[in-house]
Amino acid sequence: MQKLPIGIQFFDSLREGNFLYVDKTEQIYRLINTGTFVFLSRPRRFGKSLLVSTLQHLFQGHRELFRGLWIEDKVDWKPRPVLVINFNDLDYHEQPLERALTNHLDRLAAEHQVQLQAEHYKDKFQELIVCLSAEQKIVLLIDEYDRAITDLLENEQKVAEHIATLKNFYSVLKTTASNHIHWTFLTGISKYGKLSLFSDLNNLLDITLDERFATLVGYTQEELERYFPDRIEALAARFAVSRAEMVEAIRFWYNGFSWDGKQTLYVPFSTLVFFELQSFENHWFATATPSFLIKLLRSNQVAAYELDEIYADNRLLDSADVNHIDAVSLLFQTGYLTIRERLPSVAGTEYRLGYPNHEVAQAFRQYLLADYLGPRVGALPSSLTGRLQKALRRDSIAEFVLILNSIFASIPHTIHLPLEAYYHSLVYLILSVLGFEVNAEEVMAHGRIDAVLELPNRIYIIEFKMTSAQVALDQIRARGYDQPYRASGKPVVLIGIAFDKEKRAIGDWKSEPAAEQSQRNQ
């Protein structure tokens, strides 16, 4: 087996070290023949830096590194000067961004054996481009263009300062493009700052949602099975399952990212770590805590159950106003939501969004639940989670409500919201984190079901209200929410739950069939 390139972002190190490389050069060939200024947004750990490094060596004519790959006999391999600016290499936390850019450009100039005369970072950038293009136009590759913005989204003053600095920096491209630059590729995580930073570049081609490049980075299902067959077989043997069952388990946990609603992808990093550790865990999610996103969802009062299915249009997905950040837009751009379906029409394209896979869904729900419960509670005690699971599995709704109310009582009153969506979200998150499959907000012909909870031995249809349990139960019956589930052959239990905002608890519940006497004021 070839070694797994975990954390390797340099194409030469990967190839010279005989690490496994999933060949993306056919799409790279298409990329370099598309546009003059090309922009791509993808979440972290998706292989953007490796792509930039691959492009660097391709344009520098290092044919030996591409031996055996699709592109080997497709280009002339004539070297061209390449300038790579990687914002991961800039230290803008301990010093002003202007100083960090100045120092970085001096280092780049020294690497290219150029002596810069200019003092200002903008002038240095322009001088470096002009010097490197003295004999032929250069290729400019910019990695993590937005790092100095997305790292500091909670610091509005710093973000404003960095946007002003970067706008000045990137303005050089307009004046140098036609005479000095052959091709430019810019990549980053978000689109925040793209419009303001590149407003002068009217020929910037954004391929983020371009179907031709939907699988440019990330692993497809076909690539996973083609490049990792021995490891899949080893895992099947380890877990004592068939190869087909193992492939399905890997798909369930890690596949699902999509930018066209058709082709789905694995994050390279978490996939490689999974194969190395041979353990189904949250590998991609564990590399960063989405604290800013959690705060944004709370401030925007986005219900947790809504994240399972959200509809958006191009304006929302392309949202790039760093001063008015939309929670759903940022969740999509950072990879916590993905495109499940693309719905084109003459009125414009609409997208159905949702969690990409089990890894992201479960980990993000755990962080959301911790935020809903507050720092004093943090996580649910294992004793309570065990009791909740047992109560549901043996149809003890009274005990289920009693335990939920004990959880509600432990939440600091300062973070309570007197909203149905708040309590609905809490119940949804608790059940999801416990491992129950909760189909929240399922659309029916006559409305939306608040929650459908399917267990091996029964199905619960749940409706939440701030009025009364009877009103909730009546709505389930009147709208026939339960009818599609009767054909399953499992007992179907209808539950109406009413929240009491004054007591910050479930004040009333009713079930049908009435397995137990209705309990009030638990």
Describe this structure in words.
This protein is an alpha/beta fold and 522 residues long. 41% of the residues lie in helices and 16% in strands. The radius of gyration is 27 Å and the shape is globular. The termini are far apart.
SSE order and pairing:
Blueprint: H1 11-16, H2 25-32, E1 37-41, H3 48-59, E2 82-86, H4 97-111, H5 121-132, E3 138-143, H6 147-150, H7 156-170, H8 172-180, E4 181-188, H9 194-197, E5 204-206, H10 221-227, H11 229-238, H12 243-254, E6 255-257, E7 265-266, H13 268-277, H14 291-299, E8 310-313, H15 314-317, H16 327-333, E9 338-343, E10 350-354, H17 358-373, H18 382-393, H19 397-409, H20 420-433, E11 438-444, E12 447-454, E13 459-465, H21 469-479, H22 483-486, E14 492-500, E15 505-512
Parallel strand pairs: 1-4, 1-5, 2-3, 3-4, 13-14
Antiparallel strand pairs: 6-7, 8-10, 9-10, 11-12, 12-13, 14-15
Helix pairs in contact: 4-5, 5-8, 11-12, 17-20, 18-19
